[in-house]
Amino acid sequence: MGRVISVLVFGAVGVAILVSLGIWQMQRLAWKEAVLADIEARIAAAPVAMPDAPDPEAERYLPVRATGVIGEATVRILVSQRRIGAGYRLISALETAEGRRVLVDRGVLPVAEALPPVPEGAVTVTGNLHWPVERDGFTPENDLAENIWFARDVAALADHLGTEPLLLIAREISPSEPSVTPLPVTIENIPNDHLNYAITWFLLALVWLGMTLFLLWRIRQRPD
Length: 224
What we know:
The protein is an alpha/beta fold. It has two domains: 2-39 and 191-221; 62-174, CATH 2.40.50. The protein is 35% helix and 27% strand. Strands 1-2-3-6-4 form a five-stranded mixed β-barrel. The model has no long low-confidence stretch (mean pLDDT 91).
């Protein structure tokens, strides 16, 4: 009898812990979905003028519109697009009519294509401010000799191109560049795995319950 009680207690505690973890992940899912909905609304809002001193947290994803001339120097950043393949993001300096120099992410170019010339004259860029964090311990060092970078490091790009540490990711450039496809800010790459985690915890709870019932059955089958 004592062994049955021990198994019941051990099984009940294990199931309770696993179910509570699943419920916690469901609560996290609701929180993350609210955060993503807020970010999506901020991305799609009406564009405003470039702020004088934007805050990387408060004004992340802020939609802006700026007019200026794109500088000749262009950095290529290697990216991979789902169902499309490898390409280069093109990062250049945009000098506005007010004399500011900021970074502009013009879009993506297939790796097989030659670097196109920058647009002539003034262009109007509509997009979103962003400070992406793409470099970690596994990111290769940039190949400056071949002009191939592996992350949008805003501070390093600003130093390299002589701009403010401010990145405007284009949603639209007018006049447009025929060979360059804008790759605007979206919520697509923001991770949201809480539902998968919740399902995993609930399935583990079922497995734990099944193992507990099986062990109880084995105990009852043994002769006294």
